[in-house]
Amino acid sequence: MQALILSNTGFGHGSLYPFIHYKEDLQSRFGLTSREIVSDSLQQKLIDARAFSGELIVISVPWDTDRHKLLDFYRELRRSCPDQKLVHFDYGDGNQSPHFGILPYVDLYLKQYLNTDWDDYSRRFLGGSKFIQYLVAIGQASDSILSEVWTELFQSELPAEHEHKLMLGWNFGLWKRMIYLAEGKPDLVLLGKDKPHRFAAAKAKAALDGVRGRGKTIDAYCRATLYAGWTRKHRETTIAELNHLADDYAVVSSTGKVSFSEYYREMAQARIFVSPSGWCEYTPKDYEAMYFGALLLKPSLEHIKTEPDVCFPGETYVPLKWDMSDMLDQCRYYLDNEDERRRIADKAREVYVGYYRERRLVDHLGNILKRLALVD
């Protein structure tokens, strides 16, 4: 069985990396081989697809692709490839999508995240997100495009007769650097992300920490970039509130930037990591916190399904109220109850690392191939 991966530059290419990383597993278990062509042009993707004679074509496109252009593309692609399985991989943030109109022309539509409550796909949310709508309701964001609340841009109608084609894909936890980290290769990540002198400086600090026998020296930790939009006030408020613990605990809570290597060193020193939402509820830092043994606290995720599925309330992370009003109390509780903090943090690392050690995404890919009737 042959697959053609027609990815796009940036996140699309990164999101489809598992076909490369797990290529030997996919070939041995399912007889699947693949090759990737990276292009942002729909016209080039059409040309490449027409030249392909294999069974499966997986496609990603730039997140801001016009929905009408994408519909034209898939309509013509289906005419050109009537017998091949067409899979659209939507790596966009959020559980909704502007591109559900293509569903009649594809065999599967994979999303990074899905709503736990399927009825949410028949509802309209401000900004295309239940979480954004909540922030607007409590006054932490404005219902305005000036706050990046684009209500029509990020959602479309899910046709009932094709909703069975909507299936969970996977998120940035399967990017190359995230896989390398989970496999115990953080230095490989840092050498690819940082300049050599920054990597060396952070490693020297970490070595000195080890010589001094210092354990986790940061009680509560949060570094977050301030985006221009609805998430800005949510993040600003979280960072400011967390600093209220500084009289009693060692706190690093800031929008200040450090090198990637220093960020990893700090994360390894942290007992608790507080993760405010970004453009979607998850961030890569959630998984990095689990790997480095920091207890993850973040707004409740129970309305979302995703892959890797490793966030279980009270077991691998501590869910917070969406307004973050219980954040300080939860921080104090777990900082004052180290056994409880360690229990959840240790379980999180075990579950997170185990996901990759057991190569569970390969099982998930097998389920996708079964849905496509390409394997038994």
UniProtKB/TrEMBL annotation:
Residues 233-355 form the Spore protein YkvP/CgeB glycosyl transferase-like domain. It holds the Pfam family Glyco_trans_1_2. SUPFAM superfamilies: UDP-Glycosyltransferase/glycogen phosphorylase. It comes from the Bacteria. This is Spore protein YkvP/CgeB glycosyl transferase-like domain-containing protein. It comes from Thiohalocapsa halophila.
